[in-house]
């Protein structure tokens, strides 16, 4: 694979270049996926499904079992960036990345056993709905600015 020594000196290693643009096969696959996604959306939009309210649409009318909810949460936490980035992070910096999994496990136990049951009993779907409840007090009004303040403080 290159690097051999000849009479004129070492030969440079061979470089394999990949095309940096879509080929016709890429366009066909992209079009098929796009048409399939639009077709599924249109089918369920016009088939007269059961989803008539936002409660039914966003929360499945609170009638889903544990498995689909768990899979949805898993898909939310595991992004493509994490799947592609974790192996390279471990390769570059060693296995201390493993401790992130421990922190996820411990960090998710508290919300799962403290906050989620309270939200479920109050029929809340977001932590932001707590701010609109009566009796929150002055701290609730102060914390309304946190979603705006946090990115401005943490972004370099």
Automatic annotation (TrEMBL):
Keyword set includes Ion transport:
yes
Q: What is its main location?
A: membrane
Where is this protein localized, as stated in its record? Answer: Cell membrane
Transmembrane residue ranges = 27-46, 66-85, 97-120
Q: Which Gene3D superfamilies match?
A: Sodium/glucose cotransporter (1.20.1730.10)
Keyword field contains ATP-binding: no
Name any GO cellular component annotation: plasma membrane
- Report keywords, A-Z: Cell membrane, Ion transport, Membrane, Sodium, Sodium transport, Transmembrane, Transmembrane helix, Transport
Family annotation (InterPro entries):
Na/Glc_symporter_sf (IPR038377), Na/solute_symporter (IPR001734), Sodium:Solute_Symporter_SSF (IPR051163)
Could you tell me the membrane topology recorded for this protein? Multi-pass membrane protein
Among the GO biological process terms of this entry, one is: sodium ion transport
An example of a GO molecular function for this protein is: symporter activity
The family assignment reads: Belongs to the sodium:solute symporter (SSF) (TC 2.A.21) family.
Name of the molecule in the record = SC5A6
Where does this protein come from, organism-wise?
A: Paramormyrops kingsleyae
